[in-house]
Amino acid sequence: MAGIDMRSAAFHEAGHVVIAHRLNLGVRMVEIHFDHKLMRWNGSFEFPLPPQSIEFLQLRELCQKGVKVSLAGVMSQMKYIASQRFADPIHFYARQELAAALCFFKDSQRTEEHPGSLCLVFQPSDGSAPVRFEVCGIAFSASDYRQYNQFLACSGLSEEAIVREVMNMVDDPSVWRLIEIVADSIIAQPAVGDEQRRILNEPLLDALLSG
């Protein structure tokens, strides 16, 4: 993938938002914009910060949810791109090895100039052989990397179990349909400013996610 187009970025952010919603984390805002410095579409989302005084078990639960949300963006984006390339619908191959992917998610040496790549295996719904699919590492942004590893450190969960759970969540037909709806709604928002920013605020998100 040479870059990130608008629809691909929308699926990335929609993945974060929908999985956060499924894990009962409220989302305040999601947006995409064209980053002229990086010459590609980018995005962000916000959910409420925990109170300053929080019990350890509550903090651990928040980290367990947060690490899954941080992965959901790249997983949704990757599934969208793979479905455009190979077949639609398509889902993550359940028996794939994840060692290389786990190394990628924790690789602190990646940079904007040398982002590496993420390779996963997908299973087409027509029963044909599983296919390997690779995306440029920019799909797992520096922000995603920081959040993933910070949440992972205090989650107490197996990294491989987390990745497989997020794959299963994104593959759930009702979840994937909601990701599509949110992505389409982000793109449908009026473009604002030189960065063509498209924003879904909390009331619009609540209506979509509860509909």
Descriptors:
211 residues, alpha+beta, 3-stranded antiparallel sheet
What does this structure look like?
By secondary structure, this protein is of the alpha+beta class. It has helices at 6-22, 56-85, 99-105, 142-153, 159-171, 173-188, 202-210, and strands spanning 29-35, 40-46, 90-92, 117-124, 131-136, 198-201. The chain has one domain. The protein has 7 helices and 6 strands; from the N terminus they run αββαβαββαααβα. Helix 1 (6-22) crosses helix 6 and helix 2 runs antiparallel to helix 4 (142-153). The longest helix is centred in the middle third of the chain and has 30 residues, at 56-85. It is globular and about 45 Å long.
Based on CA inertia axes, which overall geometry fits? Answer: globular
How would you describe the oligomerization state of the chains in this entry? Answer: single chain
The strand order across the widest sheet is: 2-1-6
Number of helices: 7
How widely separated are the two ends? 34 Å
Q: For the report, how would you describe the main beta sheet?
A: 3 strands, antiparallel
Helix content: 40-55%
- Protein structure class: alpha+beta
Contiguous low-pLDDT stretches (5 residues minimum) are none
Q: Tell me the count of domains.
A: 1
Give the H and E element order: HEEHEHEEHHHEH
Mean pLDDT comes to: 92
**Strand proportion:** 15-25%
- Gyration radius, to the nearest Å? 17 Å
Kindly state the number of beta strands: 6
Secondary-structure blueprint:
Elements: H1 6-22, E1 29-35, E2 40-46, H2 56-85, E3 90-92, H3 99-105, E4 117-124, E5 131-136, H4 142-153, H5 159-171, H6 173-188, E6 198-201, H7 202-210
Antiparallel strand pairs: 1-2, 1-6, 3-4, 4-5
